[in-house]
Amino acid sequence: MAHIDIARRVYDHSWKLDPIVRSLLDTDFYKLLMLQMIWGLRRDVRADFTLINRSKDIRLADDIDEQELRDQLDHARTLRFSKKEMIWLAGNTFYGRKQIFEPDFLDWLADFQLPEYDLRREDGQFVLNFTGLWTHTSMWEIPALAIVNELRSRAAMRKMGRFDLDVLYARAKARLWEKVERLRQLPDLRISDFGTRRRHGFLWQRWCVEALKEGLGKSLLGTSNVLHAMETDLEAIGTNAHELPMVMAALADSDEARLMAPYTVLESWKKYYGGNLLVVLPDAFGTTAFLRRAPDWVADWTGFRPDSKPPIEGGEEIIAWWRLRGRDPRGKLLVFSDALDVDSIEKTYRHFHGRVRMSFGWGTNLTNDFEGCATRPDLDLRPASLVCKVSSANGRPAVKLSDNLQKATGTPEAIAHYMKVFDYETPSPRAVDEQVA
Amino acid sequence: MAHIDIARRVYDHSWKLDPIVRSLLDTDFYKLLMLQMIWGLRRDVRADFTLINRSKDIRLADDIDEQELRDQLDHARTLRFSKKEMIWLAGNTFYGRKQIFEPDFLDWLADFQLPEYDLRREDGQFVLNFTGLWTHTSMWEIPALAIVNELRSRAAMRKMGRFDLDVLYARAKARLWEKVERLRQLPDLRISDFGTRRRHGFLWQRWCVEALKEGLGKSLLGTSNVLHAMETDLEAIGTNAHELPMVMAALADSDEARLMAPYTVLESWKKYYGGNLLVVLPDAFGTTAFLRRAPDWVADWTGFRPDSKPPIEGGEEIIAWWRLRGRDPRGKLLVFSDALDVDSIEKTYRHFHGRVRMSFGWGTNLTNDFEGCATRPDLDLRPASLVCKVSSANGRPAVKLSDNLQKATGTPEAIAHYMKVFDYETPSPRAVDEQVA
């Protein structure tokens, strides 16, 4: 018997495209939760999203061929939710609740297609914009990021031989397993994969998720990636993102309404979801101001996700606030998801252990930690700090301040205006490079 | 198109045996060089070989199924040199010389078959003996060792899941590549794979050889494994082994003749081989005594292979002897092959650099360094210190003393007699565990 199956080899070498995104479920779960609410309450809103590369020294358009990027984006636009996927969304239990997605929403979703995109090159970077209805543009965030990141990995790996690749993945696997062995020393750890957007590649993310499943057992809550969750029988994990308060604040007709936008978003959310999905993301316009003005019912929510302060500082601030509002933090949940790796997970876990419930959403350093894994230093793979953010809503500028102004997005004028409206207190700066999670 | 080729899968699951040794070339090159001389000069001699497990705490017969071992040994006995292999042996250049193997010898070799074996279990160990003509029993050494070692690896790995195996090999590959990156800091390094006998497995040895080829370039002289050499277009490396002086000393009719046996072996060798194949293995009955009595022409040989003294001590002793005999060590060669790993290679290289030509034969720590690579400590893979040694020649006991009496083989009485005959000076003992190369 010949060693090589000729049909297979010819097929393998005849691919027109090796698609990066092969399913509309290859996205983060929070996009679907938010989409149901956006579709239910604000399906008329137009929102534009734009790709932002915070790593200015990484010239993406020099690394990635524009036509390859177009081919991948075009391929993603051909996708529809398959019958099997629709049945799974309708029949699966998410966060302990059956039928979390309403039949009307699922009917609409069955015909969903990613909308058009605008792409051009400018000074070594891609200018990539998605304009149109919020219900459609929002869904580009994750596939666009995953595509750009994987194209960048592929470009670097094209310079590697068979052997270089073998060593690259051997080292990356050995490294991840060292992390797993450290993390399983933490008995009450609850952790999830949040690494879709900055992943090295789809198949590598799958390996990482399976490594966590194998090595961490019940400490692994699940994965934010809906497709991986379905195919590996794990929980789909995620709640909500900055785009909700950003759009609502942009649409507000007065600064008074703008100030209330972060709370009206939560009121809307509560109409759709409960339990562990009641997690506040407080930092869109600064956590400290958010807490100061928060209505008392916000303290009844299950937890908070501090996303742009150092974990211990951010967690302590929220715990102090719960106490101030007369709530016992031991029954509350903190979800850490910013720039995590094993060191910071261990440190944060030990710091808060016994004082509050915790879970960790592990991103870039889970699914794209290849630094030093290449056989040649010039082929090294450093992830870019890429985001895809809403830039305007119904033509009005959208702004995110966060607790770290280096992560702020929006026009300089709009940022200045929001800082005034929200009484933004300038925190000590953190380098954005530490924050690629 | 289905993901799985049905025919392939059925075939894969229908194997009666996954053979460990699939070619008579899957042996060390020195066996063929010695065999030509044995066949040419002493084809009448009967020599018995026996498997010796120096790692008494490793109960091989508890780890390995006896029938599996028989099946593998039986399969090796079905092998013949293939036409392609015979053509390559005849046509290839070895150590810079064409037609190193004579046509008559190759004609005889074409019909070669491994002889029968005697196998039984005793107290958790295998008693494995090969009795018969030296021309045949000698050829069991390498396949027998490779089979026992790989069966032991397989037995351990049968307890591992798909994922454990993935991590095991990822870690082993990452570890080997760290070694390669250290070794390529040594610009004049000359190193060979000597790891056939104690390899983790055939495919793993191939990976190691290819890693060295990829990472070390011209610093890799080649591999002792003839099959790997042929298939990867590398040089086949090796000279001679202790069995030559051991058999010749056993056959000697007087102690005077016995004392001369190590030198008569060299005289015979020189009739067959020249150049870099003129490497003395001086330690069969103690290096110090060998050097003291050596005829002056021994100092004209290209080099020495100190095999059982610490490399620096052994090398210094030989360099001092060359000087004493009026030869310039800078034109001479030292081949180090005992218990090497990166630390000792670096140390030895730096110690002798510029004073003598060196090459390194890297064995167990190249092809079987899996300690700590398993996902569970109870599945850890530690290589056994296994050898397969000539035990008698024409019914007379064969003895090896070496420079480390823990590596001595033979009956206690015969060892005592040889120590007296050869004026053996008892050196400081080294633990045999350090010496699995």
From TrEMBL, chains A, B:
| MF terms (GO), sorted A to Z | glycosyltransferase activity; nicotinate phosphoribosyltransferase activity
Q: What InterPro entries does the entry give?
A: N/Namide_PRibTrfase, NAPRTase_N, Nic_PRibTrfase, Nic_PRibTrfase-Fam, Nicotinate_pribotase-like_C
Catalytic activity as recorded in UniProt: 5-phospho-alpha-D-ribose 1-diphosphate + nicotinate + ATP + H2O = nicotinate beta-D-ribonucleotide + ADP + phosphate + diphosphate
Keywords from the named record? Glycosyltransferase, Ligase, Phosphoprotein, Pyridine nucleotide biosynthesis, Transferase
Pathway(s) annotated for this protein in UniProt = Cofactor biosynthesis; NAD(+) biosynthesis; nicotinate D-ribonucleotide from nicotinate: step 1/1
Q: Where is the Nicotinate phosphoribosyltransferase N-terminal domain?
A: 25-149
The question of whether Glycosyltransferase is a record keyword is answered with: yes
Q: Which residues form the Nicotinate/nicotinamide phosphoribosyltransferase domain?
A: 190-425
Query: Which EC number(s) does the record attach to this protein?
Result: 6.3.4.21
**Pfam families xref list:** NAPRTase (PF04095), NAPRTase_N (PF17767)
Task: Give the Phosphohistidine positions (modified residues).
Answer: H242
Can you cite a GO biological process for this protein? NAD+ biosynthetic process via the salvage pathway
Kindly list the GO CC terms recorded for this protein. cytosol
Asked if the keyword rRNA-binding belongs to this entry, the reply reads no
- What PTMs does it carry? Transiently phosphorylated on a His residue during the reaction cycle. Phosphorylation strongly increases the affinity for substrates and increases the rate of nicotinate D-ribonucleotide production. Dephosphorylation regenerates the low-affinity form of the enzyme, leading to product release.
Cited function: Catalyzes the synthesis of beta-nicotinate D-ribonucleotide from nicotinate and 5-phospho-D-ribose 1-phosphate at the expense of ATP.
The entry's family comment says: Belongs to the NAPRTase family.
Query: Which NCBIfam families does its entry note?
Result: NAPRTase, PRK05321.1
The protein depicted here goes by the name Nicotinate phosphoribosyltransferase
Gene name, please? pncB
